């Protein structure tokens, strides 16, 4: 069957025809047959250089052999036990080694569960109710954070979801990114009752937006002064910008960290990590309840360990980050040559062209021409390059991307932007 035929069938069975909103592409999404390295192949016989990379986890590309071997070895021994296993300790040691802000971890299954667990632990630890999040910051699809959230929620223009009673989100305050005054005003107004500030240190779900000089440090100081738990959501940036994520890149020590994506080597995972005094409140050590049948899944842990080993041994970040620098520079040349007035953004192996002026926060991102971006996405697909369709998502490089892939990509950008 063709992608179109599959989608027509899926629409009857799955809301919107898909299992997650960002996958709903008009008139229909391509259905993947298989993927290898930097390429993804659809059931219609097309091949694409992939920069969606499953929205971030695949820093080594699709099916890297070392990770595949580790997964197969684990499958031979079984894939879920419901008991503790050695890999929990091994992976926890790796995380603690690369993230000095983390003393202890709780393994969960998704980034959503990671931020949910971190917020609950922060509230349990401080005994306070409110949290501050950043407008356009996406922390997964749970009630407390689905307010002016990025990712699919932004694309669909429905940042607030039906089905969430206002009482559930009344404790969620919003401030713009890169605006320390707004953050200070919010903490002043509610400082006795703010449990946590949660943010992506580099925003990733409205396209990549970097923190301005000193912004993260000022937030660190402000939260410390007000006994507020600072949660870095590093679901995207963790093990992406470098082994130690954005906190290493910018030299900031949060109190808690949410990890996911790359850490599972492409299999479902999430991590709530933080200082011992906070983490020891999590059940069964403490009274903040958190549990899960699939927590610490042996296959995800094994894939994560293998991924971290390759990242370290092959110094992958140096490679992908310099590829990112080169790609962004060449994209800037194209944008300038054509006088488009667009903005090339990103950091390390993350990149994106905003179809608009400089972007410092969510409101700036919303001003971009997302309709033009969608048309561009379609043309790129026809040229054999798969980018996340939305203006509000980031593109990801992997170590599997070759010089040939980059040349093909640059040519496609040149042709389709012009
Ligand atoms: C920064 C951030 N936090 C949390 C999440 C949620 O992670 P998951 O999709 O694994 O639930 C995402 C997902 O894209 C994310 O980008």
Summed up:
The chain is of the alpha/beta class and 418 residues long. The protein has helices spanning 3-13, 65-77, 86-98, 111-126, 152-155, 166-169, 180-190, 215-225, 245-250, 276-279, 298-313, 316-337, 362-366, 370-382, 403-417, and strands at 32-36, 39-42, 47-50, 104-108, 130-134, 172-175, 194-199, 229-233, 256-260, 270-274, 343-347, 350-354, 385-386, 395-396. It has 2 domains: 3-63 and 314-417, Alpha-Beta Complex (Aspartate Aminotransferase, domain 1), CATH 3.90.1150.10; 65-312, 3-Layer(aba) Sandwich (Aspartate Aminotransferase, domain 2), CATH 3.40.640.
Specify the helix fraction band.
25-40%
Question: What is the level-2 CATH architecture name of the largest domain?
Answer: 3-Layer(aba) Sandwich
Number of distinct beta strands: 14
The CATH top-level class label of the largest domain: Alpha Beta
Bound molecules: pyridoxal-5'-phosphate
Q: At the third CATH level, what is the topology name of the largest domain?
A: Aspartate Aminotransferase, domain 2
Order of helices and strands: HEEEHHEHEHHEHEHEHEEHHHEEHHEEH
Give the domain tally.
2
Range of strand content: 5-15%
Poorly predicted ranges = 154-159
Mean pLDDT: 95
User: How would you name the oligomeric state of the polypeptide chains in this document?
Assistant: single chain
